Amino acid sequence: MADPISDHLLENHKGGGTSVPPPAVVVRGIVKRYGALAACDGVDLTMRAGEIHGVLGQNGAGKSTLMKILIGLVMPDEGSIAINGKGARIGSPQIASDLGIGMVHQHFSLVDGLSVWENVVLGEKAHLDRSAARSRVAEIGERYGLDVDPDARVSSLTAGQRQRVEIIKCLRRDPKILIFDEPTSVLTPEESSHLFGVLRNVVKTEGRTVALVSHKLEEVLRATDDITIMRDGKVVAFMRTNETDRHALAEAMVGRTVDLRGGKARHVSDSTVVTSENTEPLPVLEVVNASVQTKAAGVQLANLSLSVMPGEIVGIAGVEGNGQRVLADVLSSLTALNSGSVKVNGSEIATGRPGAMSKSGIGVIPEDRHDSGCVLDMSVAENLVLASQETVAHRGFLDRKKITSQAQDLVQLFGISCSTVDAPMWTLSGGNQQRVVLARELSIGPSVLVAAQPTRGLDVGAIEYMGERLKQAAADGVGVLLISSEIEELIELSDRILVMYRGAIVGEMKAGEIDMHRLGMLMGGAE
Amino acid sequence: MLAFLGSFGDILANGPLYQSTFRLAAILVFAAAGEWVAERAGTINISVEAMLLGGHFATAIAYTQTSNFAFSLAVGALAGVFVSSFQAYLSHYLNADQFGIGLTLNILLLGLVAFLEPNFDLSTKLAGEVKVPLLYDIPILGPAMFGQRWPMYLVYAVVPLSWWLLMRTKWGLEVRAVGEDPQAADVTGIHVNARRRHAILYTGFIAGLGGGVYLLGQVGRFESGNIGGKGIIAIAAVIFGGWTLRGAVAGCILFGYVDALRLNLPNIVGHDFNAQLLAALPFLATIVVMLIFAKHTRQPVSLARPFLRGLK
Amino acid sequence: MSSTSSVKRDRIELIGLYVVSIVLAFVIAAILVNTSGGSWSKAVEAMMNGAFKNPGRWGETLRRAAPLLIVAAGSAVAAKAGIINIGQEGQVLVGATGAAFIMTKIQPGSPLMLILGIILGMLAGAAWAGIAALLYYWRRVPVVLSTLLLVYLSSQMTGYTMTRKSLLLEIVKGSPNRIQNSAKTAVNSRLGIMHIFGNNVPLTVPVAIIVAVGVAYMLAHSVWGFRLKMLGLNPRTAQRAGVSHVRFGTMALLTSGAAAGLAGSLMLATGESNYRVSSGFSASVGWDGLLVALVARNNPYASIPVALAFASLHTGSNFLAAAGVESVLVDVIRGLLVLALFIPPAVSELRKKRRVLDLMTERA
User: Are A301 and A506 in contact (CB under 8 A)?
Assistant: First the structure.
């Protein structure tokens, strides 16, 4: 596939003599398939040295896979890579590191049980020198404004602090190319702008190259020099940041004209409004003064109270790591409350008792479906009846015919694409796995549906589908609790948005009255 | 009642009891100091039992052939490494189940030793006693800790060695990282399974050495039943100690004390106990101690979880 | 490369690997025999005679295979729930000892006493495994460790019951007790033995097959099996769906112990070690049964041929001494064989991974 812009860049390099350095990264025709799904489908990318390059795309557009390929965590099926003008085969993270590529990961790269300085020096070739390492951490922290205590245990740090450690760790190896994968999802708005200052500094004063992977238009516009836009595993556009605007980016990213401000106020269906006026219905879900505290993690929920009415979508906004996961765990019977209570349709439910929440009518689409949403080594049909085996059993034995026919119905109803219902769950794409979870949770006829980051890692079609389904569930009278770090998603779907900070609800806004500035302040704990 | 208290006092002031406590704890310490490293890397090596036995047997053969104490101990350590290499490569290279491998190695080695033993005319003897000046004169503890046969003193080297390796070297940092969070370690560029293998090989080295020391520093004569369960108790000590070396050593001393009590109780109290019940004492005590004192300490997060970088 | 052809190739490769590694295990064993002054061909012949050819021997092999199969079926239950019980050797022994309290002490026996004895044996085995469950769910002591410790403890604790006349020690008039074992079981509390073509086949054999098939069926088709599997594969999802880790995990461990106890009591009821219990009674049935389950990858059906193979190694070994080879050779062979059987699935998995990586090297 021809890519005029980067070809042009390459030629420019050849013809331009010594003055123009070769591009830091040239990627050509990268293909990576997961089963039937191509996460990257002939991707070309050219990153110029000494600039910040934005890689923009919706969740599931293939950005993360592409970056994992650059960092040696994933092997491409096809394609070639050149780093600083030289062909490279990046077979492992070690090789990437030797080539001068460093990545600041979104998740999973700090070891909780170790201290900050230990994490920073981890994986280096030099001998362990405790005092030198500690002072170096302090020094890098000071130079870039990344303040953190070198002796602190990583498990005790906030998400923002962890990211600082990640950046220090990455910078300490003096990489020529830094990749930032969705760096702001764990940051408050203030912390985000601070980060962009650091990035600019790194590029300007030290000539490094930065890739900023994101699905947020605003930050890519603000922080980058060039932008490559991906959609459905392909590169759909390349732009210079100062020659484009939000609308052009959004159109390229989504693939059609979008109304950026439109559709945020979802109309509450008339029927529920009427009933609410007449009879003051009971909330389907009430969480009252819920507190969770553990020795290892400290206070996780602090006197949190909220309620969800039938037919209502309540959004929970907040920077990740402020207790959203624990709240979802409580509503999944995975965590018990230290004090407080959970009520469904007015009756109190024992927390932490296996299956109690599910039985009382709380369906959950968990943040990490592989963690508590499905069993990858069981079949699609089995996954569809995980929570309701009794209904498909006769005298303690499973009725396979019934399971199969029920599964086939659900597969059709929810448009799940799988070879057969007996195929193992792991053979399905992420989006289809998510549909299986959704289908199961809705098939038990819940009063409440908790959806935690339900669109994370899904492609555009799946995201839209999920939104429609949540609206549909609400229209059918289900109370929906939507936990998300995507503010746009919350605004589009919610009737009410609650802001969560340090394990408590710190603010509330109605659908029509959302003030973005105040929302940002609340998320940062400013009120 | 008074008589009971009296005999209790006898037990506490009994010198030989402390001497045998030290001796019996020493072999546990060898096994535990090695096993601790492997567990911090994320493996539970039940084959530490086989590593002890391998060292025990190989040292006996080497001594029979050469009559050289130091050389025989070295052979014992290498034999431990040899046994541990099976555990290391099968479970962290081929990704076979670590417990299945460990169990099979334990059974295999018992059989192998029993099969091979008649082919060797084993004759071994104890190494010379060395009394450490000054320290030996400390009452009760002196003779126990500093009046032993010289190979036993290696225990004083092994504990700091393990600690230093794990807590102060780059390798040790990587080993700890691998046991806590292999995904993160991998992303950081550490070869997870290689570190785990190294940790197991180290366990084999120390446990093999311990098996040899036990032979030449304490029992003097090879018998395949000598090891019977000591490796398993050492694993219990590591868990008892909450995966700290200090705690593990304390566990070894506790279990060593119980074992010594088993040997010395009839002499001290002057009353015969049922032999079977006495033999059960160390295991019974280990279980009871675990039941009462094992804390919900933070274990290495990915203990006993195999690592495979996903190609999925 | 189409996926079906690669699947086929993987399968052929896997079978090839099994053949190679089994042959290798036997070659190593043969070398051991020859270097220690024996003759491997004679050893093989002796083992064949001991396991099948000589009169009455295949009955003996079946007698040994039956408890292995029962133990293996129980191990599979625990393993499916993700719990690693490796203390079957102790659970078998404790089970037999429990059964002996009824079968040997209550004279004259009766079929009712037989059944009660078996039930007590199962309860004893389950209780022994239950200690490990208690240690795990209360104190987080790994089940692997506690079950193993309990094996060591079991032989001494049961040995103790054989030193007290008030417990199980056989009361022999006139002479002091030299050997510590129990009295014989009451004649009426014994389980029948079928005589087929000159072989004595105990009723344990059909019982074992029923147990294995039953366990396989329950695991595959019952709600109980479904929940166990869910727990083993993803404990958090299971908890959300109402499967309590503590309750189901404990139950799986108890079931596994009860199966071992059943094996032990049936051995006693069908004349193992002349209807007497001693501290060496379990004779590695627990270890062997566990290894059967491991090799058969916790599939009760696959455990049937594996149990037969392990049993014939055992019965064959009884004839080794006649060929001038130590009978413990079989322990070595068995260990090598199990290691050998671990390797093929692991290697084939690894190969698959390598092939993908190689493909990428070609393209880069």
Answer: no
Point out the domain boundary residue: A428, A444, A460.
A444
* pLDDT, tens only, B237-266: 999 898 999 999 999 999 999 999 888 887
State the Cα–Cα distance between residues B251 and B234, nearest whole angstrom: 8
Give which of B104, B235, B291, B301 to mutate to test C binding, by max C Cβ within 10 Å: B104
List own/partner pairs for B266-270 with CB under 8 A and 24 or more apart: B267/B16, B268/B7, B268/B10, B268/B11, B268/B14, B268/B17, B269/B7, B269/B10, B269/B11
What is the model's pLDDT at position A8?
A: 46
Q: Which domain holds residue C124?
A: 63-318
Torsion of CA C45, C50, C53, C59, to 10 degrees: -160
**What confidence score (pLDDT) does residue A270 get?**
40
SS (H, E, C) A433-501: HHHHHHHHHHHCCCCEEEEECCCCCCCHHHHHHHHHHHHHHHHCCCEEEEECCCHHHHHHHCCEEEEEE
User: pTM of this prediction?
Assistant: 0.87
Tokens matching residue A239: 């732009």
Task: Identify whether residues C137 and C207 lie together within a single domain.
Answer: yes
Calculate the alpha carbon distances from A404 to A423, B306, C79 in Å. Answer: 11, 34, 27
- Chain B residues touching residue A128 (CB < 8 angstroms): 168-170, 172-173
Chain C window 236-295: which residues touch A at a Cβ cutoff of 8 Å? 236-245, 247
CB-based contact, A296 to chain B, within 8 Å: yes
Task: State how many domains chain A has.
Answer: 3
Whether residue B187 lies within 8 A of chain A, CB to CB, comes out as yes
Verify whether the Cβ–Cβ distance B99 to C150 is below 8 Å. Answer: no
The sheet carrying A78-83 orders its strands as A37-47, A25-34, A78-83, A86-88
CATH class, domain B2-293, is mainly alpha
